[in-house]
Structure formats: C-alpha cells, structure tokens
Design goal:
With 170 residues, the chain is of the alpha+beta class. Helix content is 37%, strand content 32%. The chain has five helices and eight strands; from the N terminus they run H-H-E-E-E-E-H-H-E-E-H-E-E.
Length: 170
C-alpha cells in the first residue's frame, strides 16, 4: 500500500509539471494521473475493480484494464500502455477528453444579382434586380456570411457579385 501511495504522489507531481492549457484540461490531466495510479494498484491485485472519482477501473487478469463511467465503457488500456507512465497518461487523457464535434458542412456560392443573367460574370446563383442576398441565404442556410465582391454598371439596375458562405445548408 505504501508503494501505491508513493506512486500516486509521484504521478500527481508529474501531472503538475505538464504545461497547463486550461482549467478543464488540468482537471483531465489530474484525473488521468489518478487513473494511472489506480491502474497500478489494480494490476498489483491481478483482477478486480477500483473506483477513481466516478470512473470504474476493472481487469480480469488478462493484462487489459477497462475504464467506464456510470456503466458506459470509455475504453481499454493495454498492458504495454500502462507499464509506461507517459503512455498511460496519453491513453487515459484520450479516453477522458470530450470528443470534438464534427464541423457542420459548408457550401460557398457566388451570387449574381442584376437584370439579365447572361450579363453576369461567372456565378452559381442568379437573382433578379434588388434581390436581398442575405434573405436568400437565410432561407437556405442555418447560418451564413455574405460578402460583396464586385459591382458593375449595366442595364436597368447594375450587377453585383456576392460570395455566400453557407453553413449547414437546408
């Protein structure tokens, strides 16, 4: 038991040396250090379970430690990973860190507004004179950025080219 306490203190001290990115990341790193220490105590028993905060660590003696939270499996740490402290931390931090949400799809349109489409410079969408490009984009996108790229004279109302960056097209 004295070795586990010494190991825990050493791991927590080492975790304090890791550069700090944010409070949330700090908390994940400290929890990872605790989990790696818990793995050390669990492996010494060959099989069983250990609880670290709200995480359950378990092994059946096959060399792999399972980590779960509230009955949901977060992943496994193989023997080769927990034998080396840095590998253990890297693996556990990856399991405990929230997964980034995928970026929503975006589409970019070149919109020409004017009296005759044939007089427009290269474009993807044509709108008649004085059409509201922002309203057009709002009807087709969850969010959008509209930027005026060019205007030129001609016919009844002139012409404009706008770029619309459409996020999450409807």
């Amino acid at each position: 038991m004295r070795n586990v306490t010494a190991l825990t203190a050493m791991l927590l001290f080492a975790a304090a040396l890791v550069p700090q990115a944010s409070m949330a990341q700090d908390a994940i790193e400290v929890r990872a250090a605790k989990v790696c220490a818990g793995i050390g105590s669990l492996v010494s028993k060959s099989q069983g379970e250990v609880t670290v905060d709200n995480l359950e660590l378990s092994t059946t003696g096959n060399g792999t430690v399972s980590i779960s939270r509230d009955g949901v499996d977060l992943g496994k740490v193989n023997q080769a990973e927990y034998k080396d402290y840095v590998s253990c931390l890297t693996t556990v931090i990856g399991l405990l860190s929230p997964q980034p949400k995928p970026l929503p799809p975006t589409v970019t349109y070149r919109v020409c507004s004017g009296e005759y489409e044939r007089a427009c410079k290269p474009h993807d969408v044509y709108l008649y004179c004085y059409a509201d490009v922002k309203s057009w984009a709002a009807a087709r996108c969850e969010s959008s950025i509209v930027q005026r790229m060019n205007t030129y004279a001609g016919n009844k109302c002139g012409y404009s080219i706008d770029t619309v960056v459409c996020t999450s097209p409807k």
